Amino acid sequence: xxxxxxxxLTLTLLAPAGARAIxxxxxxxxxxxxxxxxxxxxxxxxxxxxxxxKKYAAFVPDLATRNDLSRVTQWMLSExxxxxxYQGPGDSAFEAETIPGGLLGxxxxxxxxxxxxxRVFGGLKWTPDLRSPLTEPGVDVKAGEYLLAVEGKDLRxxxxxxxRFERTANRIVEITVGPTPDGKGSRRSRWxxxxxxGRCATATGWKATSGV
Length: 212
Prior knowledge:
By secondary structure, the chain is of the alpha+beta class. It folds into 2 domains: 2-78, no CATH class; 106-193, Pdz3 Domain (Roll). Helices cover 12% and strands 25% of the residues. It contains 3 helices and 9 strands. The protein has helices spanning 33-36, 49-57, 66-78, and strands spanning 2-5, 9-14, 23-31, 106-111, 114-120, 146-150, 153-154, 171-178, 187-193. The strands form 2 sheets. Strands 4, 5, 6, 7, 8 and 9 form a 6-stranded antiparallel sheet that branches. The protein has a 3-stranded antiparallel sheet with strand order 1-2-3. Strand 1 (2-5) and strand 2 (9-14) form a beta hairpin. It starts with a strand and ends in a 19-residue tail after the last strand. Mean pLDDT is 74; it is low at 1-16 and 192-212.
């Protein structure tokens, strides 16, 4: 028997010994009286409990990890639309690793099998930690240009763009940008990105700090 307490309910799952998957046929949902009986609004801000149970129970058969359950519980809690409403993490079979990633400060669309800059955010140039990496002097990436390569490696759809920037916080990264998807007229720029602040200068004389 596996019992997982969460903020609004206790989810009890019965699994036969040696089973590869948990049998959800005998799943029981038990409301926590501290929440169900003492919430200050008897109408739960319009979140009808039986309706919420039916809505979020649909996700249960597809849960694969404890983190999946936590995410669904967070979604359910958000239905209350109330501040200071929290969900405890519960037991976890592994330690989640936070992988810092760099961001260029832009929105993208897909065109001609490439990632194209749809919008470049300007940032706040008078605040060092909020400057935009793509608008620094000598870089000047414009909307409509293509992100062709990262660290000299060609980038094309459907490869995940953001995967290329994993573990790049506080590191110098080279990007190749051009006006056309075939690489004609492209240029290379080196930049550094920190999630909290940027302090790295590059050989091309510009630095990148936080963006979106």
